[in-house]
């Protein structure tokens, strides 16, 4: 097994940086980060799409397994090297379950993981702006519910759209290659809407409603202090203020980054 030697933060930063820099012609990708308040005050909202839709990315690291004694080579699942994402099993895989809840109303919710074999390959990809093309997007809508405390994995191979959710193997044939992400964004164009005050208000309210559903399910273990974060009135706020508050909630409750994609 080979860990590529980077953090989820480093991979996520590199992926989002490329999205922001590269998508400036046909469309615009704008990550909404919880710490943007100061930038917002100096006109950051000018970088937002005026017409688009929302995506939700949780960044995961992958291990590269190539030896014959690797579990899913040894048992015949794969004939050669593969990548493996480990899901967080804390609290009966609570993180995964929360993401599943988010994906019910937000089908553009994805695990995003790299297809790098080493830190050197990652560094070269970053310098050459090939991070996105060497990434894989796994849709949460295709993942099953998990309500146990067992260790579960997602595995996939380079250049193969198929992926598997373990421990009970379930094969899937729907993932997104990073190299195809522009076409993937374009295919969703029929769902684009004006990114206006109505849009951002609905985005905050929908996120809040999903969180309240989770509060009801997790009543015994939920941190009640976090409910204070939901005391926000988007009707009395600017578009960017509402987006930042929504991104804060998404980061804290789901561990995802909100990205708006659309036309300039």
Short note summarizing the structure:
The protein has 264 residues and is of the alpha+beta class. The chain is built from eight helices and 13 strands.
Overview of the structural elements:
The chain is α+β, with helices and mostly antiparallel strands and 264 residues long. The chain has one domain (2-263). It contains eight helices and 13 strands. The strands form two sheets. Strands 2, 3, 6, 7, 11, 12 and 13 form a seven-stranded mixed beta sheet that branches. It has a six-stranded antiparallel beta sheet with strand order 1-4-5-8-9-10, with no helix packed on it. A hairpin with a 3-residue loop joins strand 9 (163-166) and strand 10 (170-172). Helix 4 packs antiparallel against helix 7 (197-217) and helix 7 (197-217) runs parallel beside helix 8 (239-254). It is globular.
